[in-house]
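Posting here for the record, re: glutathione.
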Amino acid sequence: MAKSLELYYYPECPYCQRVLRAIDANGYEGIVLKNIHADAAADATLVRVGGKHQVPCLFIDGVPMYESLDIIDWLAREFA
Ligand SMILES: N[C@@H](CCC(=O)N[C@@H](CS)C(=O)NCC(=O)O)C(=O)O
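Prediction output follows.
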């Protein structure tokens, strides 16, 4: 079964933009985008589950992964 992928981000964040560009450039599909500046529940979930208020954060089957370069590397392997 496909993994659940949710990217917590906000548009003004350059690290988020780096991940979003990688998603766009490589045509990765099925990633739900959660703009924490537009979604208070997502903002709260990020801190409650992830443990810190930092974006980008990719939730992989509910498990948070921080760090833009780690996320980009993980996506490249997952979608290879
Ligand atoms: N090394 C991290 C840096 C991430 C980072 O600094 N994100 C900023 C936004 S650009 C952040 O989450 N700041 C805390 C906040 O906005 O509350 C990465 O590459 O993902």
